[in-house]
Amino acid sequence: MRSRCTATTDTVCAPCQDEYFSSEHNHRFCQSCTICNTRKGSVEVKKCEKTSDRICKCVAGYMPDARYTLGSVCSPCPEGSYSIGGYEKCQPWTNCSLLGKNTLQPGTKTGDAVCSSHVTQPTTSQSATPTLNLSTTPHKNNTSTAVFAPSRPSLIPSICSDTSSPTETNWGSISLILICLILLMVSGMSILLLIIQAAKKETKRRPHRNSHKEENSFRLPIQEEQIDSDSSLIKN
């Protein structure tokens, strides 16, 4: 429409200019066509015509921005999500580990993660399960302990490296006490052996001294007898 009707003139209509359209019979002016912002992830699906607006949509990895005409301006998907394009919101990647499956292909901005078709038990969950079973249920049968046997070596270093464990502290103090007692016993035995050896040496020396004394004691009377005999001869 170029001009509205008045009391003396009729309404004057004219075709819409380029980049303008009018989709119905009315007395309004032509509207401007929507512009697809290619820098914001938008792409043209249908061209602008005299009777219809331009249609835009988001490319893969983007989702529509609600503040603008649908599909004209798009926002990139946040980390951990994807979009195949169009007018849908970004969807989070499938977590294969939660499903018990292996991740064959990680997710991207334009595609979901690809998981394996069969369910597999993660190795981390296997190593964690025996730890709980060994500590909480020690009365399990032989088959369960045989299955959990590979996880025992991983538990031993963790127990030994815990310096705050009261059990390790008690063993350390007991071992120190035992070592001290052994050293005291050894030193005591060595002292006793030295005393015994010294006593034996003393007993060996004593008989010689007594023998010398006895000899001296026997000699004195003999000398006295000789003196007495000499004195008797002198008197005679």
From TrEMBL:
One of its GO terms (biological process) is inflammatory response. One of its GO terms (molecular function) is tumor necrosis factor receptor activity. Residues 132-146 have a biased composition (Polar residues). InterPro entries: TNFR/NGFR_Cys_rich_reg (IPR001368), TNFR_4 (IPR020445). TNFR-Cys repeats lie at residues 15-56. Residues 120-131 have a biased composition (Low complexity). The chain crosses the membrane at residues 171-196. The keyword Metal-binding does not apply. Pfam families: TNFR_c6. Residues 15-56 form the TNFR-Cys domain. Residues 202-211 have a biased composition (Basic residues). Keywords: Membrane, Transmembrane, Transmembrane helix. This is TNFR-Cys domain-containing protein. It comes from Strigops habroptila (Kakapo).
